Amino acid sequence: MSSEIKRNYLNGAEAAVKLLDLHKVEHIFGLCGDTSLPFYDALHRLNHSIKHILTRDERSAAYMADAYARVTGKVGICEGPSGGGATYILPGVVEANESSIGLISFTTDVPTTSIGHFPLTELNQKELFKPLTKWNTVINKSSKLADNIRRAFKESTTGKPGACHICFPFDIQTSEVPEKDIWADKSYSSFPSNPKKPNILKVKQILKSIYNSKNPIIIVGGAIKNAFAENELKKFVEKLNIVLATTVTGKGTLSDNHSNNLGVVGSNGGSLFTREYLKKSDLIIFFGCRAGSVTTEKWQYPSKDKKIVHVDIDPNVINSNYKSHISLVAEIKETLKILNKHVIKKNFKGDKIVKEVKKKKFKDFNKLSEENSGLIKPERIVKELNNVLPVNTYIVVDPGTPCPYFAAYYNFKKPGRYFLTNRAHGALGYALPAAIGVQVGKPKNRVVSVMGDGSFGFAVGELETAIRLKLPVIFIVISNSVYGWIKAGQKTKFDKRYFSVDFTRTDHSKVASAFGLKTWKVEKSIDLNKTIKEALNYKKGPCLIDIISQPLQDAKAPVSEWIA
Ligand SMILES: Cc1ncc(C[n+]2csc(CCOP(=O)(O)OP(=O)(O)O)c2C)c(N)n1
Ligand SMILES: [Mg+2]
After folding, report:
1. How far apart are CA 86 and CA 89, in angstroms?
2. What pLDDT does residue 1 have?
3. Residue 151 placed within a domain
4. Predicted confidence (pLDDT) per residue in 483-542, tens digit
5. Are residues 152 and 206 in the same domain?
6. What CATH code is carried by the domain that includes residue 102?
7. CA-based torsion, 526, 450, 53, 153: positive or negative
8. Residue 483 DSSP SS3
9. What is the rounded CA–CA span in Å between residue 197 and residue 211?
10. Separation of 503 CA from ligand 2 center, angstroms?
C-alpha cells in the first residue's frame, strides 16, 4: 500500500477529481505525463463518475473536448502535462475560446519550488495561455484550488462562454486541501449559464425597425445552437415569414428544408444567389454573429451602408465591422423569448424568396452530382451522404473541400447541432478527433467525419483512440493528393503559379486497416451509394471510406474568395 493512501487528508489531486465530479463532469479527454501522476492516481483510486479518454495527442484532447461541449452543452474538459503537453493542447483551447464554447483545459506542471531552476518542461504557462483564454491561472497554493476550479466553471459558462485554463503544479497536487472547500455550484456545469436578459425598449425598437423594412434578412451565427434556442428562432422567423440565413457555424439552426432558410451566406458555402438577396435587403439583423470576413465576404456583403441591427452577448462584436442602427448586448435565447412575446404577425414573403433562390443555387449542384464519369466529384459525395444518412447523424467537417460543400449543399432535415466545423481558425485536422468527442458525447447517434487528405495527415494517430473505444464513427477521406484549397488560391489569384502544394497519394484505407478499422476505397461514383450504406450498417467500431476525388482546384466549389 502506498504512503498516499495512508494519508488522513485530501490532497490537491483528489480535491480536483472530487470537484470535477461535483460539477457533473463525465468525461475528460487527455494524455498522461510525469507531472500529472498524482492526478491520474486520484482518478484511479477515488469513487467518481468520470471516464478518462486517453488520447494520442493533447491537440486532439482539446478538439475532442470542444466538440463534446458543442453537442452536449456541458463544459468540455481536456488535460495534458507540462511543457509539450501544454503547448500541444493550445490549438483546441483557442478554437473553443474563439467559438464561445465552454471548455476547461487542465495542464499540470513541475513543482512550484523548481521554477527558475531549469527543470525539464519549465514553461511560463500563465503567460502562454493568458491571451488565448477567457480566464486562466496557475494554482500556487492548495488553499486556492477549489475556488480556482469553481471560477473556471463560472467563467467558461457565463456571459460569452469560452475556454479557461488551469495549471496544476505537482506539489499543489500533493498538498492538503481542506474538505470544507469541496463544493460546487452545478448551474455552471453547462453553458450558457446565468443568461443576460435584453433591454425591453431595445427589443421594441428592433421590432419596429423590422416592421418598417421591406426586405429584411436575419443572419445567425453559432450562438443560437449554443443556447439551444432553435425553437425560439423558428417561432420568430415564422411569425414574420422572414428570410433567415446563417454563417457556416450557424448552419442547421433551422432545418435546411425549412421554407424560410436561405442557407449559408458568405465566401465559404454561400452562392451568387444568396449574395444577390443580401444585396437587395434593406435591413440586416445579426443574431449572435461576429460578422467576420467569411460571412460578409470581407465586409462587402452586406455593404457598409446597409441598415444593421446587431444582437450579441459580446459587446466587442458590436460596431466592430458595421455601424449598427440598433445594437443590443444580451443573451440570444432570452432576447428571442422577449421578441416572441411582442412580435406581431407580418408577411415578408420569406418562403417565396427562399424557394426561388434555392432553385437557382442547386441547379448546377444537381447536375454535377449526377455525373458518373471521371473522378468522383465533391457534389456526388454530398448528394450520396444526403440520401443515405439518417436525420439525426452528426457530421463534422474539416477545411478544404468538406467545409464549403457541406455548408452549401448538405441538407440537415432536423434543426440542431448536427453540423460541426472549426471556423475560428479553420486549422486542418479537426474533424477526426472532434468526431470522437461527438461520439463520446452522443453514443446513440451516428457520427460522420469528413476530412481532406491534408487533414488526415494531421490527425491519423487518433484512429487508434477510435478503435480502442470501439466508437462506430464513419471517417471519410476526400483523397486528392493536394492541399487543394491553397492550390485553388494559386490558380485564381496567382495565375496558376503552383508551388509546393502537391503531395503523393496515401492509401488511406490501408493505413486505417492497419489501425484495425473496417475500410473501403471508392474510385467510381456509382460505387459510392452502396459503400456508404455498408459503412452505415457496420456498427462494431470505426470504419473509413477513402474516396479518390476530383481535386478542389478543378471543382466548381461554392467559394467566392480563396484567401481568407
Ligand atoms: C493547421 C493549418 N495549416 C495550414 C492551413 C491552411 N490551409 C487551409 S486549407 C488547406 C489545404 C487543405 O488540404 P486538404 O486537407 O488536403 O483538403 P483539400 O483542400 O485538398 O480538399 C491548407 C493548407 C490550415 N487551414 N490549417
Ligand atoms: Mg487534399
Report:
1. 5
2. 40
3. yes
4. 999 999 999 999 999 999 999 999 999 999 999 999 999 999 999 999 999 999 999 999
5. no
6. 3.40.50.970
7. negative
8. coil
9. 23
10. 9
The total of structural domains in the chain comes to 3
Per DSSP, the three-state class of 220 is strand
Residues 119 and 41 in one domain: yes
> Which range marks the domain in which residue 467 is found?
369-554
Could you give the CA distance from residue 284 to residue 278 in angstroms, rounded to a whole number?
8
341 CB-near residues (< 8 Å, 6+ apart):
none
CA distance 150 to 172: 16
Reduce the secondary structure of 374-441 to three states and give it as a string: CCECHHHHHHHHHHHCCCCCEEEECCCCHHHHHHHHCCCCCCCCCEEECCCCCCCCCHHHHHHHHHHH
Neighbours of ion ligand 2 (CB under 5 A): 452-454, 480, 482, 484
Ligand 2 geometric centre to CA of 380 (Å): 17
Shared domain check, 118 and 10: yes
Q: What are phi and psi of 360, to 5 degrees?
A: -70, -40
Ligand 2 midpoint to CA 457 (Å) = 10
Pocket of ligand 1 (CB under 6 A): 399-401, 426-428, 452-455, 478, 480, 482-486, 552
> Looking at residue 264, which CATH number applies to its domain?
3.40.50.1220
Distance between CA atoms of residues 271 and 81, nearest Å: 45
Judgement on whether residues 423 and 542 belong to the same structural domain of the protein = yes
Residue type, 284: I
233 and 316 belong to one structural domain: yes
Q: What are phi and psi of 558, to 5 degrees?
A: -75, 70
Task: Give the max Cα distance, the chain.
Answer: 76
374-395 pLDDT, tens digit per residue, is 999 999 999 999 999 999 999 9
* Residue 443 and residue 412 share a domain: yes
How far does residue 408's CA lie from ligand 1's centre (Å)?
19
In a domain? residue 362: no
> What's residue 3's pLDDT?
47
Question: How many whole angstroms separate alpha carbon 314 and alpha carbon 483?
Answer: 35
Which residue's CA is the closest to the ligand 1 atom numbered 20? Answer: 484
Start-to-end CA distance of the chain, whole Å, equals: 58
| Domain assignment present for 193 | no
- pTM greater than the 0.85 cutoff: yes
Which atom of ligand 1 is the closest one to the Cα of 91?
1
Are residues 455 and 433 in contact, defined by beta-carbon separation less than 8 angstroms? no
Residue of 397, 403, 456, 483 to mutate, ligand 1, most atoms within 8 A of C-beta: 483
Has residue 559 been placed in a domain? no
Ligand 1 atom nearest the C-alpha of 400 is 19
> Which amino acid is present at 267?
S
Whole-number pLDDT of residue 564: 75
What is the Å distance from ligand 2's center to 403 Cα? 12
In angstroms, rounded to a whole number, what is the distance separating the alpha carbons of residues 352 and 359? 11
**Whether residue 302 has a cis bond before it, omega within 30° of 0:** yes
Ligand number, closest to the Cα atom of 430: 1
Claim to verify: residue 431 and residue 516 sit in the same structural domain: yes
Q: How far is CA 359 from the centre of its chain?
A: 29
How far is 62 from 75, CA to CA, in rounded Å?
Answer: 12
Task: Answer for the pair 83, 120: CB distance below 8 angstroms, yes or no.
Answer: yes
